[in-house]
Amino acid sequence: MTEQPPASPPGDPAVRVAVAVLGTGIMGAAMARSLCRAGHDVRVWNRTRARAEPLAGAGARVADDPADAVAGADVVLTVLYDGAATLDAMRAAAGGLAAGTVWMQSTTAGPEALEPLAAFAREHGLVFADVPVLGTRQPAEDGTLVALAAAPHEARDRLAPVLDAVSARTVWAGERPGDASRLKLVCNSWVFALTHGAAEAVSLAEGLGVDPRLFLDAVGGGPLDVPYLRVKSAAMLSGDLSPSFRVETAVKDSRLIAEAARAAGLRLDLAEAGTARFTRAASAGHGGEDIAASYHASFSTPPDA
Asked: Does any domain span residue 304?
């Protein structure tokens, strides 16, 4: 894997491209705003149109349907819930797609769900780029995500203006569809391990009558201290669980990790337990909240109890 520096300054009119963004949830909307700031021709679509309409104020054109959004686009960027939703959107977009268009697929879909997407790309003559991203709401808003990318070498220059706008750096994982998506599962497994570790430490402190801030003081500045612990513990202690990564999405991604591990003949106890923990938090009414709501799983009755 190698890192590729930005090819040109964001907003350079010489590399202005037409980008269709399908899916304007937390990540898609933020990435669309970054693309608008960089001076690109951005058109957006979302199944619930009201979630896309605020992007008109940032300079995007809100499309009535996927085919309208992708017509004339140089790059199609999909940021939807899962592989099935992405395939549905692209099928609806088929009438507006042109052969040779670059499809930058950024949904966390998992290796199995990616093959039908790659097959669709082949059927329609699209250049398929497997590009999930690492980061949450604020890095997406700032255009400082880490792009995990796999695409043919000949497509990389065409992708560069979009990657420059939405990410601080690109880690090239290979050329084949799935190379980057597998890396994304590895990265998410680490994100979830840190999240659950913070949640259990904070809840254990409270359960034992220890001020959780003493725990944070004890590890502060040492090798056990990480910025992510500070961010998530602050959310847990303040009760502000405004989502940058929703629990309901983490349930889906955790299952993808566990399924991929089993398919590889691996036993990942933390991943399996983490899936159950997110599922329990969602069942307790925290599905729409940030993954820091893993904290609440410590106080929820297991579904099979």
From this structure: no
Q: Which residues pair with 134 in a beta bridge?
A: 146
pTM above 0.85, yes or no: yes
Burial class, 291, CB count within 10 angstroms (exposed 0-12 / middle 13-18 / buried 19+): buried
Say if residue 103 is in the same domain as residue 211.
Answer: no
Q: Is 165 part of a structural domain of the chain? A: yes
Q: How far apart are CA 118 and CA 35, in angstroms?
A: 25
Mean pLDDT over 200-213 rounds to 98
Question: Among 69, 75, 82, which residue's Cα sits nearest to residue 25?
Answer: 82
Provide, rounded to the nearest whole percent, the portion of the chain with pLDDT above 90: 91
Please give the structure tokens belonging to residue 252: 């889906």
On whether residue 305 sits in a domain, the answer given is no
Q: Are residues 233 and 166 in the same domain?
A: no
In a domain, 162, yes or no: yes
Q: Which residues span the domain enclosing 247? A: 183-297
pLDDT in tens, 65-102: 999 999 999 999 999 999 999 999 999 999 999 999 99
The total of structural domains in the chain comes to 2
Instruction: Look at residues 275, 244, 281 and name the one whose alpha carbon lies nearest to residue 257.
Output: 275
The average pLDDT across 148-166 equals 96
